[in-house]
Automatic annotation (TrEMBL):
<keyword id="KW-0560">Oxidoreductase</keyword>
<comment type="similarity">
    <text>Belongs to the short-chain dehydrogenases/reductases (SDR) family.</text>
</comment>
<dbReference type="InterPro" id="IPR051911">
    <property type="entry name" value="SDR_oxidoreductase"/>
</dbReference>
<dbReference type="GO" id="GO:0016491">
    <property type="term" value="F:oxidoreductase activity"/>
</dbReference>
<dbReference type="Pfam" id="PF00106">
    <property type="entry name" value="adh_short"/>
</dbReference>
<dbReference type="InterPro" id="IPR036291">
    <property type="entry name" value="NAD(P)-bd_dom_sf"/>
</dbReference>
<protein>
    <submittedName>
        <fullName>Short-chain dehydrogenase</fullName>
    </submittedName>
</protein>
<dbReference type="InterPro" id="IPR020904">
    <property type="entry name" value="Sc_DH/Rdtase_CS"/>
</dbReference>
<dbReference type="InterPro" id="IPR002347">
    <property type="entry name" value="SDR_fam"/>
</dbReference>
Length: 246
């Protein structure tokens, strides 16, 4: 029986991915900053562990408690919509601490066991905003584009150890808590001069069009985890797939 460890399972893509693998008889280590037993079905194949990917001690404890893991999914992430002028450098560091350095630190923590066993899969969830730049997302996009470049270079050094790396690029998913969770960071992020631009961005989101659902991401992570012949980069969701094939 295979074991997957997923970061950021309290909601959205991480939660749906945990459900998807549980339904398919995997052992799931669902990690959360604030562990909650009630968001996933009870199962003797489910373990919920506390993990904050920005905290080295938390990472050390979680990886020790987890034991052997076959697949790591770096899904935990935070968003920020705003003009660069409206974001402090502490705000920039906060985004990178979770989205970029968190994924690197988790990967570093799992690699020794993957290398020793000469097997393992690392799936990094980034974003389709790295395929086509969008307004007011410069810092967030940079944090995810860094993970893309990191993953593609890392793949080369891990190949001799039979460790696979994949990127899952979801499109915009208005159904998850992502936008709401980002709201507190956006308070001063849109200075007056950028307000008309922000209005046009919000208006565009109201237009009908393809979006991404959490199930699309879970299925794509499943493909990355279970199909060794699949491409390194996988778009997830109708909008992301359209962008990737444009
Ligand atoms: N939704 C979209 O439109 C979209 C599009 C493309 C890519 N993505 C990416 O997909 C991933 C999942 O997003 P989502 O839509 O599922 O959003 P979400 O519902 O907000 O889920 C994000 C998860 O990350 C967790 N998290 C945040 N900071 C953390 C930290 N320091 N340590 C551990 N966990 C942390 C959150 O936990 P708490 O409950 O503790 O905050 C939450 O469980 C993110 O990496 C995001 O950047 C999202």
């Amino acid at each position: 029986m295979k074991t997957i460890l997923i970061t950021g399972c309290s909601s959205g893509f991480g939660l749906e991915t945990a459900r998807h693998f549980l339904d398919r008889d995997w052992t799931v280590i669902a990690t959360m900053r604030t562990p909650r037993e009630d968001v996933l079905p009870r199962s003797d194949r489910l373990r919920i562990l506390r993990l904050d990917v920005t905290d080295a001690d938390s990472i050390g404890r979680a990886v020790e408690q987890a034991g052997p893991v076959d697949v790591l999914v770096n899904n935990a992430g935070i968003g920020l919509l705003g003009a660069l002028e409206g974001v402090t450098m502490d705000g920039v560091r906060e985004i990178f601490a979770t989205n970029t350095f968190g994924a690197m630190a988790m990967t570093q923590a799992l690699l020794p066991q993957f290398r020793a066993r000469k097997s393992g899969v690392i799936v990094n969830v980034t974003s389709s905003v790295t395929l086509k730049p969008l307004h007011l997302l410069s810092v967030y996009t940079a944090s995810k584009a860094a993970v893309n470049a990191f993953t593609e270079s890392l793949a080369l050094e891990l190949e001799p150890f039979n460790i696979r790396t994949h990127l899952v690029l979801p499109g915009r998913a208005p159904d998850t808590a992502f936008g709401e969770n980002a709201r507190s960071r956006m308070r001063d992020a849109i200075p007056e001069a950028y307000a008309p631009l922000a209005q046009s961005v919000f208006a565009a989101w109201q237009q009908p069009g393809p979006v991404t659902h959490a199930a699309d991401v879970a299925e794509t992570v499943w493909r990355a985890a279970t199909d060794p012949s699949c491409p390194m980069r996988l778009a997830a969701g109708a909008d992301a797939v359209a962008l990737a094939s444009a």
